[in-house]
Amino acid sequence: MSAKRVILTLVAMCLMAGTATAATLKIGSLSPLTGSYAADGNDIANGTRAAIAAIEKEGGIPGFDKIELFAEDSACDPRQAVAAANKLVNEKVVGVVGAYCSSATIPASETLAEADIPMLTPASTSEKVTERGLPYMFRVCGRDDDQSIAAMKFIKDVLKAKTIFIVDDKTTYSQGLADNVEKLANKEGLKVIAHDHVNQGDKDFSAVLTKIKDAKPDVLYMSLQNSASGALMLIQAKRAGVTAAIIGQDAVYHPQLMEIAKDAAEGMYLTFGYIDEETPSYKKFLAAYEKFGKPGAYSAYAYDAAYSLLSAIKAAKSTDPAKIKAELIKGDMQGASKKIKFQANGESGSNYIIRVVKDGKFANFWDPQTGKKY
Amino acid sequence: MDYLFQQLINGLTLGGVYALVALGYTMVYGIIQLINFAHGEIFAAGGYLGVILLSYMASQGLMDSHPWFGLAFALILAMGYCAMLAMAVEKVAYKPLRQSSRLSVLLSALGMSIFLQNGLMLTQGVYDKAYPTEFTHGGFEWLGVRVSYMQIGILAVTALLLVLLNTLVFKTRIGKAMRATAQDKVMSALVGIHSDKVISTTFAIGAALAAAAGIMVGLYYGSVRYDMGFVPGIKAFAAAVLGGIGNITGAMIGGLIIGMVEILAAAYIPAGGEYKDVFAFVILIGVLYFMPTGIMGENVDDTRV
């Protein structure tokens, strides 16, 4: 045996010994890393990474040398989300942050539920997500029924609208929300001029916007699945001469909206969870997120989801799902996005407020709880 | 009435874009009977080069002092770049397969399309890229119909390029060579036409038109994304088939019709917005079924080409 081979054998043995003692905690994230929703999807993966970095900085989780993230691409597609969820099951992750589109989260959660893997969604707001009785499904963001109630309250109390035109792009999320708003509008006695649909990924909205300009509604409720589509609709609405107040929802809450639409976005309202940017938790999140650039809409929620999961594992001193669940429900922490207190059904409460685009930024505008402007 | 006119203007703008992209499909098909699926990606590449150039010029203040010069410069540079890109694609993916079956070339085209789209995604990122659009919001209102300068710009550039293309194909030597090669590759080679060069030129011209369309789409809608070539590519292909594939005037008319139908379906059918794509493709199926040669297409004996 030559000296070279002896050294190689020794090196190999050392490496094997290294992997044998190092316990790695595996967690997964599911979000659309490619395709139309890649902007929000990458924010979710990065938020999860930031939380792992923050936990490791605080000393990590006893019993584990490191935390490894498997960031899978759900592509906002039910089939791919299930395939990605299966991959995470095979990797034996102990918990998953995700997914983004409700239509992908729901089937993926069924796959994870079969393996009893806890799933915490930072972004899927459809009511159906938590209403299927899955034991390990948690939600960090708010719910669409609450979101539509907040929007309608604003439309009625502040905008004092009599007529409304609703447009959605037919996803589980966007259409569900638009349907809720339509129901509430009928209940509140507003006239729903039309509830029209466009396709996901459309670039040209001129036909429907000309319709809206002609119908002269007081309010246009714009329920689109992503901020880039929202920006395109705002630009074209301005060009077409639509004068209605435009109100959108959480999916278009992303800096990309103003980057593309620029001045055409000014004055647009949207519903989004209230985030207190003055809390120490938010500042800690900002510091951990710094290397990923500006936080997007769901960065803080993904951070909170991952942070809650890892804290629960730490407190439970175990990766047993039932124990993690018990710790999640026991926990009551001030997260970066909001105060997080999980209930037995997996919800953590909604706190939607109205924001407005002002000088190229999202500014807090009106709180439906108090009925006051900020 | 002004509602109808407004929608017609919307349709005309969209149709103009489809027409420009459709020309590339139809010219390539006319000359080598290949449906060049990578054409939509060339269109996207044009849009991206446009945003890179215009953003740079805007950051240097050039777009404020000389907006028209800047636009023309970006347009010409992108057209030139995409022409070269398409010639390279042709060299790599299609020329080695000239003697193979049509199916191999078609598969090669599909592969090229996936390659280019992923190349754009990896080099330019998955996010939408915003165009500097400050100068595109203006417009005027006439009898209740709003026309933006951008819409006029799109139609004017489309019309100009079509006139140039027609002159090129029907009035110049290279145009004559293209028509000869399209009719009979072997015979034209026998009389001294360098068919490889002619085919390469055809790809270049089609790509230049697509690049122009890419920039105009970016300016008009405000952003570009790596996968922006797919849907317009398919629609433009439908337009080329509708007009009679291989026929330049047909592609133009087909593009305008597809654009109009899409907009009018969304405008007049209740909740038609969600079915507008269906209408565009129903036309394609209808044409293939009842009128396989399209509006302007001739009855070509397949054994001849």
TrEMBL record, chain A:
<comment type="similarity">
    <text>Belongs to the leucine-binding protein family.</text>
</comment>
<feature type="domain" description="Leucine-binding protein">
    <location>
        <begin position="24"/>
        <end position="351"/>
    </location>
</feature>
<dbReference type="GO" id="GO:0006865">
    <property type="term" value="P:amino acid transport"/>
</dbReference>
<dbReference type="InterPro" id="IPR028082">
    <property type="entry name" value="Peripla_BP_I"/>
</dbReference>
<dbReference type="Pfam" id="PF13458">
    <property type="entry name" value="Peripla_BP_6"/>
</dbReference>
<dbReference type="InterPro" id="IPR028081">
    <property type="entry name" value="Leu-bd"/>
</dbReference>
<keyword id="KW-0029">Amino-acid transport</keyword>
<keyword id="KW-0732">Signal</keyword>
<keyword id="KW-0813">Transport</keyword>
<feature type="signal peptide">
    <location>
        <begin position="1"/>
        <end position="22"/>
    </location>
</feature>
<protein>
    <submittedName>
        <fullName>ABC-type branched-chain amino acid transport system, periplasmic component</fullName>
    </submittedName>
</protein>
<dbReference type="InterPro" id="IPR000709">
    <property type="entry name" value="Leu_Ile_Val-bd"/>
</dbReference>
TrEMBL record, chain B:
<feature type="transmembrane region" description="Helical">
    <location>
        <begin position="68"/>
        <end position="93"/>
    </location>
</feature>
<feature type="transmembrane region" description="Helical">
    <location>
        <begin position="42"/>
        <end position="62"/>
    </location>
</feature>
<dbReference type="InterPro" id="IPR001851">
    <property type="entry name" value="ABC_transp_permease"/>
</dbReference>
<feature type="transmembrane region" description="Helical">
    <location>
        <begin position="203"/>
        <end position="224"/>
    </location>
</feature>
<keyword id="KW-0812">Transmembrane</keyword>
<keyword id="KW-0997">Cell inner membrane</keyword>
<protein>
    <submittedName>
        <fullName>Branched-chain amino acid ABC-type transport system, permease component</fullName>
    </submittedName>
</protein>
<dbReference type="GO" id="GO:0015192">
    <property type="term" value="F:L-phenylalanine transmembrane transporter activity"/>
</dbReference>
<dbReference type="GO" id="GO:0015190">
    <property type="term" value="F:L-leucine transmembrane transporter activity"/>
</dbReference>
<keyword id="KW-0029">Amino-acid transport</keyword>
<dbReference type="GO" id="GO:0015188">
    <property type="term" value="F:L-isoleucine transmembrane transporter activity"/>
</dbReference>
<dbReference type="GO" id="GO:0015808">
    <property type="term" value="P:L-alanine transport"/>
</dbReference>
<dbReference type="GO" id="GO:1903806">
    <property type="term" value="P:L-isoleucine import across plasma membrane"/>
</dbReference>
<feature type="transmembrane region" description="Helical">
    <location>
        <begin position="12"/>
        <end position="35"/>
    </location>
</feature>
<feature type="transmembrane region" description="Helical">
    <location>
        <begin position="147"/>
        <end position="169"/>
    </location>
</feature>
<keyword id="KW-0813">Transport</keyword>
<feature type="transmembrane region" description="Helical">
    <location>
        <begin position="236"/>
        <end position="266"/>
    </location>
</feature>
<dbReference type="Pfam" id="PF02653">
    <property type="entry name" value="BPD_transp_2"/>
</dbReference>
<dbReference type="GO" id="GO:0005886">
    <property type="term" value="C:plasma membrane"/>
</dbReference>
<feature type="transmembrane region" description="Helical">
    <location>
        <begin position="278"/>
        <end position="297"/>
    </location>
</feature>
<dbReference type="GO" id="GO:0042941">
    <property type="term" value="P:D-alanine transmembrane transport"/>
</dbReference>
<comment type="similarity">
    <text>Belongs to the binding-protein-dependent transport system permease family. LivHM subfamily.</text>
</comment>
